[in-house]
Design brief:
By secondary structure, the chain is of the alpha/beta class. The protein contains 9 helices and 10 strands. The strands form 2 sheets. It has a 6-stranded mixed β-sheet, sandwiched between helices. The protein has a 4-stranded antiparallel β-sheet with strand order 2-1-4-5, with helices on one face.
């Protein structure tokens, strides 16, 4: 089983603005943690620090006790961190099958071989098709990624992550821009990933109904700082979250 993911005193400053301020947190296998907070709280910036899109001003990122703070984003992917973005990140002019096959090929460390076409690698094709089947995309395998609905593009992005077999799955607002009909499909995929208790899943999400349905734990960022951490019911009911995230002033008693 993969080890834990940890941030220690993680901080980043943009000019005079401290966007993430000394966040220390540990994430364990078998746990889906939702990261919530108001706009500008530092959620996506914290995600970017973990996945390697940004380098911290101060602090450390550890994966299975190894310091990965100086690793690039591609190196962190190879180390086991998979990331899905708010906007889909696909090869739009390749087919669904080709998108997934390239991810399977990368995970297997297979490079281009001039004298051996990829079609000869039945093992890779079968693995790609198995991922497509598990994400309900096998029937669209020959369709161009650009032709898919937004919901199916998000499913394809999850398929690419699954093909890389990461230890950490990171979802940044996976339901953003989706229709009401499309949302349950992606949520079911994330629910299926939760069934593998060896994986760490991190989720940034604004929709509290989604958070309630999926999260084992919630952490709350506000002005770049970690202000709450615990079981969903406790965190959502806490006065600091009611005020900072939901905009509800806490009851301080009658005057």
């Amino acid at each position: 089983m993969a080890g834990k993911l940890e941030t220690r005193d993680l901080s980043i400053r943009f000019g005079g603005h401290l966007a993430v301020d000394s966040v220390s947190c540990t994430f364990h296998p078998g746990e889906l943690t939702a990261i919530v907070g108001p706009n500008g709280a530092g959620k996506t910036t914290y995600f970017n620090l973990i996945s390697g899109q940004l380098r911290p001003t101060r602090g450390t990122v550890l994966l299975d006790e190894a310091d990965i703070t100086q690793m690039s984003a591609p190196m962190r992917t190879r180390a086991g961190i998979g990331r899905a973005f708010q906007l889909t990140n696909l090869f739009p002019n390749l087919s669904v099958a080709e998108n997934v096959r390239l991810a399977v090929q990368a995970a297997a460390g297979v490079h281009y071989e001039m004298l051996r076409p990829w079609t000869a690698r039945k093992d890779l094709i079968e693995k790609a098709d198995a991922v497509l089947e598990s994400t309900s995309l096998l029937g669209r395998r020959e369709a161009l990624a650009a032709s898919l609905s937004h919901g199916d593009q998000r499913k394809l992005e999850v398929a690419l992550m699954m093909s890389l077999a990461p230890n950490v799955f990171m979802f940044d607002e996976p339901t953003a821009g989706m229709s009401v009909d499309e949302v349950p499909v992606v949520l079911k995929l994330i629910e299926k990933l939760k069934g593998d208790r060896s994986k760490i899943i991190l989720l940034v999400e604004h929709k509290m109904d989604v958070v309630r349905s999926l999260a084992d734990r919630i952490i709350v960022l506000h002005n770049g700082r970690l202000v709450a951490d615990g079981p969903p019911a406790d965190v959502i009911a806490s006065p600091i979250v009611q005020e900072a995230y939901l905009g509800v002033a806490p009851d301080r008693g009658a005057p």
